[in-house]
Hints:
Blueprint: E1 3-5, E2 10-12, E3 19-23, E4 40-51, E5 54-66, E6 69-71, E7 78-82, E8 96-98
Amino acid sequence: MTTASSTQVSYQNFEIGTRVRSWDFRRVDEPKIPGRPDCFVEGTVIAIIEQHGVNFYEIRAERRVWSGEEEAPEDGEIIRTPLNGTQSFRRCTNNVEKI
Length: 99
């Protein structure tokens, strides 16, 4: 596990084999917005890959919640999400947490 830091935020990253939750529309360093239903995928980090100069987690989806509703992940579903601390168009990503 490595930690990179910004001015005020510490970004935690995870090794292959770690169980994580990857949030959509929410950062792990921000409070939940009242009235906004949860959207996330839970699973195990199976790889860290580089694509076009950006590092991504590959996560085997084991649980999916969309708009607060439980959905079954597709058989063998793999999602990709940038490592915490990756610069996006507005700010650094910080959407993945250990579970």
